[in-house]
Specification:
The structure holds 2 protein chains of 2 kinds. By secondary structure, chain A is of the alpha+beta class. Chain A has 14 helices and 14 strands. In chain A, the strands form 2 sheets. An 8-stranded mixed β-sheet of chain A has the order 5-4-3-6-2-1-7-8. In chain A, strands 9, 10, 11, 12, 13 and 14 form a 6-stranded mixed β-sheet that branches. In chain A, strand 10 and strand 11 form a beta hairpin. Chain B is of the alpha/beta class. In chain B, the strands form 5 sheets. Chain B has a 5-stranded mixed β-sheet with strand order 5-10-9-11-12, sandwiched between helices. In chain B, strands 7-6-8 form a 3-stranded antiparallel β-sheet. In chain B, strands 1-4 form a two-stranded antiparallel sheet. In chain B, a hairpin with a 6-residue loop joins strand 2 (about 40-45) and strand 3. In chain B, helix 1 (about 5-25) packs antiparallel against helix 2 (about 65-85) and helix 2 (about 65-85) packs across helix 4. The chains are: A alpha+beta, B alpha/beta. The interface of A and B includes residues 481, 487 and 492 of A.
Chain lengths: ~550, ~375
């Protein structure tokens, strides 16, 4: 006898599977909550053309209800446009309520799951939803409320609604009380996340207060709000039949031929003619889309798949740029030198992608000499901190032969040494391996594109390393001469019983001899230095920190 | 100080003088050393041992080599002092003597050797330049291996002060005679004709044979090689061969390591010691066994080479290289030995010398019987 079949709401599903969206451990719960809140703030600021100012507070407030956990306060405030009162329950209490889903734009959030999941986690562990304060420009007073998720119905519920005075023109403040554990350092640490976010958002001012640390302020280094590119229509070759049919529902009563041209990129009159040539009756394309049957959709879809179309446009890709990324690297503070590469947007797996890479060497070299390099991964300007090994970015880094650039590297592993390798992949359609967006799927084309960027960055960096090696060699040579010349000559004179006059002549002769070697080394060093200078003149290379830094340079 | 020492000192001074006058003229001095490696080894059956080819390693004085040269001159000074004083040292002692010199003279600090291999390679470098033996520079290794038993052999040693010491091995009982690293100071004579000299790879087995009366029953010299023959063993065998003309037989394991490292070094010297193989090899020594055919003939216990044992795999690989590149195994007249190597590579089996004890476990003299029988029948390679 079969059981009764029931349906459950999206909220019910996610509340039981929070591990799928980043709440698989207590440490991750804190980080994910922070990440979702900051992502929302940054997206909102950029949408409204506001330079983001983000304040973060994380503190322990007591013991958590879960075993071995603390109760943590996570508060994120922004100066974004603020949320309209009606939108607040949807944003924080309803799954899959998103203004960004499937729009083909490079926003951080996409589906509208993350922040609602954070609310659910707070609700499950502390029995309190999220405390929201929001004020838009036209509101005289800010609205303060608590939002909870109605798990049975996937709806946001507002509680304790109030109007309060808020000393800012607009913005949102969210405050979660959750069970979790705070990890500050390490790859999965909060500091790594905040520093990474600062690195790829040069236009952001970030103020944060974490437990056991002084409050820190990271000033913005760019006053340009990223110009979020307009979304482009989907490319037919990136869709499946079901998506294709669902896409038609957005257009209501419109002729199929018109829908194809308006609703997709790279489809024009010529394409429509080819569809007809491909066996689709012209009468079908004259019909309204809402009147098309499944077989007709399928015939159009199949014909489209067989037509050679131009690759999707790369205009929808947002990039940080070498200059902004370089300035942002300075905020890491203690780097010796670095190189930055922004690849031109390209198509990988039929999706527009842009890869940017920064490789920096830390000043404190001794501490990390034998440890793997620090890898900072970003997808749509959001740091990725878990499940590193399966990620396209890490696979690309290990595939590069870093030894060529003077960086040591065990076989098939990450390179070693006091370096930071930051890789940012931006695309309106990033293929993540899971809903918690921790790993970028490693397709061959994407790995190759990242690899190329890394090779370029490695080549730039190697010139610094080579120069340093040459300088070291020269120093060593001079030291050698000073140390061994007198010893060698005295030894020879003692064995042969040579008089002092011979000794003096030999000393002078030896200095002349070895001096020639030193001059050759000096010449090599000068040449290496000149190559660097030429590079800098072309705005491609970085100079050591503390040296002169012309305004247009793409590095320190 | 003997004539050889004087010659070495004169050679050293000449070399230093040449370097010094080149430096005075701001001309780069170049030191030429014999290349001691297999690719510079020649073998001629009539000569009987590996000799150096024409290849030399040139070390020109420049910034990179100034340290190496300075160290060589520093160490040479110590060695010359030893020759003048008649003092002898091991490599390890020379390492500490050099450390002591540096300790008492801070100006030499840059020369300091971090560990013994650094000072060892400096000594080797000096020997290669002067084309002499380490022993010529009064630097001796520990007298390892070569413990010898005989009822007929008498050794006369000329001591550094000119006195002579006579050692009659028949008076030593079960105590062996330990040959020296410098066999040139020894003279040999026999109380009666010695029929053969047996060199046993395992020192333990050599002791067993003596304890069971081998040297009492046979007019022979019996020696334990103790693995890869040291300079003492090699020089000692050469001396026996030259002075007594006694037939020499080697008895050891049937495996690639024994054939390629132990036996070849004993018979023809090594690539690393090309300069001194003439005095440190016994070209007439024959391989008595264990021979591949002995396994069947005596029903010996053999076993497969462990292919997951890095050392054994390395030995097989070296044997393969030897067949391809070693001029000793290339020589037609050593075909019998190269056939054994091929057999070992093909069958990947080994048989130890002690396997002769399986033939008749209740007869402790059975290995002796087999050995003597093999010598009589000419069953060797």
């Amino acid at each position: 006898m079969s059981g009764r079949i029931t349906t459950s709401s999206t909220a019910e599903y996610f509340s039981k599977n929070l591990q799928q969206v980043g709440f698989s451990s207590q440490v991750k719960a804190v980080l994910t909550t922070l990440k979702e809140a900051v992502d929302n703030s940054l997206d909102a600021c950029e949408e409204a053309g506001v330079l983001p100012e983000i304040n973060v507070l994380i503190e322990k407030v007591g013991a958590g209800s879960l075993k071995n956990s603390d109760q943590i306060r996570v508060r994120v405030e922004d100066n974004g446009p603020g949320l309209e009162p009606d939108d607040i329950p949807k944003v924080y209490g309803e799954y899959l309520a998103s203004s960004k889903f499937g729009r083909g734009r490079c926003s951080r959030g996409q589906q509208g799951i993350g922040i609602s999941a954070a609310t659910t986690w707070a609700q499950l562990t502390s029995a309190i939803g999220v405390r929201v304060v929001s004020k838009t420009e036209r509101m005289r007073k800010a609205m303060s409320c608590t939002v909870e998720v109605d798990i049975k119905n996937n709806k946001g519920i507002i509680k304790d609604k109030d109007s309060i005075d808020w000393d800012r023109p607009h913005g949102v403040s969210v405050e979660f009380f959750i069970d979790g554990r705070i990890q500050l350092n390490g790859e999965a640490g909060l500091l790594n996340y905040l520093n990474g976010t600062a690195l790829v958002n040069p236009h952001m001012t970030l103020r944060f207060k974490l437990p056991d640390l002084e409050e820190q302020l990271v000033e913005r280094v760019s006053n340009a709000v990223p110009d979020i590119p307009r979304a482009t229509e989907p490319h037919p070759h990136t869709m499946k039949l079901g998506e294709f049919i669902a896409h038609s529902h957005l257009f209501g009563r419109v002729r199929a031929g018109v829908w194809l041209k308006k609703g997709f990129s790279r489809v024009n009159d010529g394409t429509v003619k080819e569809i007809i040539k491909g066996g689709v009756k012209s009468s079908v394309l004259e019909k309204n889309v809402d009147a098309l049957g499944e077989a007709e959709f399928k015939s159009i879809f199949m014909a489209l798949q067989n037509i050679k179309l131009m690759a999707p446009s790369t205009k929808s890709v947002l990039w940080i740029g070498e200059e902004a990324l370089s300035k942002s690297m300075k905020r890491l503070g203690s780097v010796d030198f670095f190189s930055v590469v922004s690849r031109r947007p390209t198509i990988c797996d039929f999706k527009p992608v842009q890869v940017e890479v920064a490789v920096a060497r830390l000043e404190d070299r001794a501490a990390e000499a034998d440890s793997p390099v620090q890898v900072l991964r970003f997808a749509n300007r959001v740091p990725l901190q878990f499940d590193k090994s399966a990620c396209a970015i890490v696979q690309a880094i290990t595939s590069v032969n870093w030894r060529t650039y003077g960086i040591s590297q065990p076989r098939d592993a990450l390179p070693l040494g006091p370096y930071i390798i930051a890789v940012s992949v931006v695309s309106p359609f990033i293929k993540f391996k899971n809903a918690s967006k921790e790993t970028v799927d490693a397709s061959d084309e994407l790995v190759e594109e990242i690899r190329r960027a890394l090779i370029q960055a490695g080549q730039k960096l190697s010139k610094h390393i080579r120069r340093e090696v040459k300088a070291g060699e020269l120093e060593e040579k001079i030291k050698h001469i000073e140390q061994f010349c007198p010893i060698l000559v005295s030894g020879l004179c003692r064995i042969t019983g040579a008089p002092d006059s011979r000794k003096k002549r030999a000393e002078q002769g030896l200095i002349k001899l070895l001096g020639r070697d030193t001059k050759a080394a000096e010449k090599e060093l000068k040449e290496a230095h000149e190559v660097l200078e030429e590079q800098n003149a072309g705005h491609q290379l970085a100079l050591p920190l503390g040296a002169h830094a012309p305004a247009k340079e793409a590095g320190i | 100080m003997n004539g050889n020492d004087k010659e070495i000192i004169a050679l050293s001074k000449e070399m230093c003088n040449k370097v010094l006058s080149d430096i005075e003229k701001a001309k780069r001095p170049v030191l030429y050393a014999t290349k001691c490696s297999l690719d510079n080894a020649k073998y001629n059956y009539k000569t009987g041992y590996l000799t150096p080819g024409p290849k030399k390693v040139a070390t020109e004085l420049n910034v990179s080599s100034v340290k190496k040269m300075s160290r060589a001159i520093f160490m040479l000074e110590i060695l010359i002092r030893n020759l003048l004083n008649g003092a002898v040292n091991t490599k390890r002692e020379l390492y500490y003597i050099s450390k002591g010199e540096i300790k008492h003279n801070s100006a030499l600090k840059a020369l300091d050797f971090q560990d013994q291999p650094e000072s060892d390679s400096t000594i080797d470098f000096i020997c290669e330049i002067l084309e002499c033996y380490r022993e010529d520079m009064n630097c001796y290794a520990n007298d390892r291996g070569g413990q010898t038993y005989s009822q007929q052999l008498v050794v006369t040693e000329t001591l550094p002060d000119g006195d002579k010491a006579v050692v009659d091995l028949s008076k030593l009982g079960t105590t062996p005679f330990q040959p020296k690293n410098r066999p040139q100071n020894l003279k040999l004579s026999a109380r009666k004709k010695i029929d053969f000299c047996l060199i046993v790879e395992s020192e333990g087995t050599a002791n067993t044979l003596v304890a069971n009366g081998f040297t009492k029953r046979h007019s022979c010299i019996l020696m334990g090689a103790q693995g890869v023959p040291s300079n003492a063993v090699r020089g000692w065998c050469k001396l026996i061969e030259d002075e007594l003309g006694t037939p020499m037989y080697f008895f050891g394991d049937l495996d690639a390591y024994t054939m390629q490292n132990i036996f070849r070094t004993l018979k023809a010297g090594s690539a690393a010691s090309l300069i001194r193989n003439s005095d440190y090899s016994a070209p007439d020594v024959r391989f008595l066994g264990v021979l591949p055919e002995d396994i069947k003939k005596y029903d010996l216990n053999d076993y497969p080479v462990k292919e997951n044992d890095a050392q054994e795999v390395r030995a097989l690989k070296k044997a393969q290289d030897a067949l391809a590149n070693d001029p000793f195994f290339h020589d037609k007249r050593n075909k019998g030995l190269s056939q054994i190597l091929k057999w070992l590579l093909q069958h990947k089996r080994r048989c130890e010398q002690q396997a002769y004890f399986t033939v008749d476990p209740r007869d402790p003299t059975m290995p002796e019987k087999i050995i003597v029988d093999k010598i009589k029948r000419g069953d060797y390679v």
